[in-house]
Task: structure prediction
Amino acid sequence: MLLIHCPYCDETLPELEFTYAGEAHIARPANPSEASDEDWEKFLFIRTNARGPHFERWRHIHGCGRFFNALRDTVSDKFLATYRAGAPRPDLDSVKKAAE
Amino acid sequence: MTIDTLTPGVIAQTSAATVSLLPLLARFSLRVGETERAALAKAIGLDLPLKTGARAKAGGVEVLCLGPDEWVLITDDAPRLRDACAGIQRQAPHSLVEISDRELSFLIEGPKAAELLTLGCPRNIDRIADGEGRRTVFDGATVILWRDGANRFRFDVSRSFAPHIVALLETGCAELGAEYSD
Result:
């Protein structure tokens, strides 16, 4: 079972308390009616499908209920970092170094 | 299994643990932002704990912090709490919702109470200190766990999940009772 650190509860807890919520840092176009069909398609459907470190959203659904962001390696399934929603992306290199 | 929600009493009992249904009580869910928090605390009459899982009790109101802006309150005087919060709704907007009927509360106690909970709860129960509480998961259902002592827990379960959870606790009580003779 994966152990995930919730940045709001500040506890490392079993995966069963959490739920996955898609890729992180996808901004909705500020004015959807002005977005082109391609841009809108990109926003709705096109995801990176990364092999390796992936920025993604998780929700502590059976706990504090908060959405937060995580950096997970999709190959090893290892969580490199978790951080609060709205916080900027952590620097990949320094996170990797800290995880080693 | 069926639970008679109006008749509190023992549901399962072995040498390992006892599970009993607690009488109905008044429960509220409080959501309030950082800027209005102090005004709410004053109206309710106790400081709202800020750390997830922390609890406080004063003047007949018991409160558990579930998340950064969410608390559950148990009170023996619901009208007073409702009026106190309604009185400051304009100055300090918040959401106070009565959820008394949403959940059933059980008391789990006995020498193996903590072990009984590990049957459905993936979390390390020992990491929840006495006098704290958490919202967590028990065999797929969200539950609110109040730890009142080393071997004494209160356990709030959504009523639709209660028959399933209670059946599991009954089985667990019997199983732990069979291997525990002291």
Observations:
- The mean pLDDT of chain B is 93.
- The interface with chain A takes residues 52-53, 66-68, 70, 122-123, 127, 134-137, 142 of chain B (CB under 8 Å).
- Residues 26-98 of chain B form a domain with the Alpha-Beta Plaits fold (CATH 3.30.70.1520).
